[in-house]
Amino acid sequence: MATPIYQHVTVGPIPIPSEARPISAPAVYRYPRSTPPNQAAINIDITPENPLLKPYDQETVQKLILQECKGAIYEFSATSLLKTSLINPTSTSSARRTTPASPPMLGLSPEQENYIPLAAWLNTLIDDRYKKLFAFHPYNRSVAGDHKHDDIDRTAHLKFALNPDLIAAWLGGKLARKRIISWFDVDIAVEVKDVWMQCLRQALTYGRLTLGSGLRWFCPVLMVDQKKSTANIAFCTRMGVFISEKLSLRHQRDRDHLAEILCAYVELQPDKAGYDVSAKYEGEVLSFALPRADAYEWWDVDKVLFKTPSLRGTATSVYRLKPPACQAATHPRDNLPQSTDLEDVRQRFSDLQASVPSSGSPKAADDHPHPTASDPLGARLRSRDAPSRDSSPRPSSPENKRFSSSPRNPIMCIKDQELDWENATPEYLIMKDSYPLVARAKTEMEFLRAVKDQHGFSSIIWGLTVDHPLKDFLEIPGLRSCAALGGGSDAILTQEERCHRRLFSNVEGKPLTEVEDVFEIVYTCVDAFIGILNAYRLGWIHRDISIGNVLHRLNPEMRAVAEQVAELNAAASGRLPGCDFSFLQDHLRKCNCVIIDGDLAVKCTDREELMAYKSGTLSFMSERLLRAWHHDWPSLHCALDDMESVVWLLLWTLACRKQDNKTDFEKGVLEKLNSPNLEALASAKFGLMARTDDYDFAAGNDEAHDLVIRWMAVADSARVEADGVFPKPKKGALPSPAHEVDTDLLDRLTYKYFNEYLLAGVGFLRKNERYQFD
Prior knowledge:
With 774 residues, the chain is an alpha+beta fold. Among the domains are: 46-267, no CATH class; 508-766, Transferase(Phosphotransferase), domain 1 (Orthogonal Bundle), CATH 1.10.510.
């Protein structure tokens, strides 16, 4: 893939109105739904794998997923689900609901012998109209084949991930041998075990991977206990997992309920079946729909900058999007061609291939010349194909009439004013895709407004919300905490409301692990300290300084200096007399860092929130916070903790950079900092701060040796003084309430250590001849 030429394109800050204007999302999929046939790969540039995201062993992954879903695994009865709008097919024709009189014949072991008979039995539950289109299939190596492609996104491809025992998908009645199946092909993943808890843990890994494909806002998984001949259907969402009560396959009534749920799910329109209709795979490209005043555009992903694997709401993806160049750029909603109602289901399914992502070969690059950044938008549009007859039907077409008129139709709500596309067309957009808590999403926007013009941050130029009916899961009658996990009717449900947010910037950065020069890595870390200082000066704490949230700008930002120094000194003088940041005079001219992802940011005055909730990425959290979290001590997350996170970020980055001559110390650092155990991680960080004589870096990292040791000493000193502000509760005594923290003392310590960290960092940079700003 050719490396794009990046040009500076000015897009001014756009004010965010208080009222959101809804715009209907395009309907990519049509009824009955399908996924791309024989999809082979995601042909996009994947950032190099780093140890933080490297999968743990299977057992550890299962434990971590179950842990992250703690308190958010709910149980419901099948009869309650069937009464809700979640399982409410739009088809008005009568569907055959006759279930077999006999249960599936399941043996105890080995489980592989149950796959084929179970798939055959499940297929008898599917309505006759869909049996040649939608089916359950055993999934094994004979199906997957022995394909090994370095360019395949291994988080999306089943061959390189945890393999489900069976899959259900719109792939026809029979699978060809050696057919590559990807997670975006899978409608339902099935796990078979003779121990229910093992079955649940494994099934949740499939839920995580299916949601991670980028096409789903919920996905079902089916769990079969072969020993007790029971089944549960679970719906995985970003706000938790919703599991049916156990259905006995030996009882006709329970088999009927399972058949009703499966038949109803198959008939659902794509949006109600968990598909995000504002995202699609076409050919081998992932694209997202960006709404405009009277139309929408599909922008293609050409690089995944960051991806956090998670099932629950902490999942975050950052993509670089490029303007569409090989298909019609705009699809006016009022001018889309009419779609013909096709009575024959098979014919309708075949007709889908024109509008549903296909596996056809991508067009040659010279078929459609790529526009340049200097081209006006009109020229770009003229260089694209006009919308064809097979484009997605307009919402008012007969085929989508019920779909579009329903209040449950996915809506993309613009939270910013629209971009001035004609006068400021960006060469690319950086999009953050996440599912924050609704309250946190509002706070994040407030935070981003506050820091948008500050050193260390970039402006969010646009934002939208993709509206999925997630709340409907919380409204299932009789919803309760899962009894098999220790819950019950009396258990308190920790229901959380999340929203699907997409935020856009025109500033591109890359992880520090991809920066080859130690000098540039340190420069970015110094800028991160300044960004944290600016946020604190404006009354905010970021709370998640980590490898995914501190990026190195591809194009440094040149800034005015005088006003910045005056603002920093004015803020410091009121807290710590004599504190002077004038030594930053030169450094503030250029910014190499961009801090992103403010969904955990909190106002400094919100002490109860800062004390009640521990946040951050474990590898980079401060030793003090980890210790408090492990012992369940109350402790405010303060700016001192964010500062210490920068130190761990630098050490972690140096240790995981790609080098052939890693030292034993660097290998040990990665192993220690990537531990998921709070106690072990806190102990390891305490030891790393106390025993700096053991530090041994490879030749490529040795340049930063003295600075790392100096920053570790500053962090250790700050930790000791912070313990004086947040004393450990005495045995048997209640902890001090948040409002009793001496904030004046904390303020003084904060500016003191900002000054010490920055003096050391700038002192290191000044020794390098490249530290020039002419």
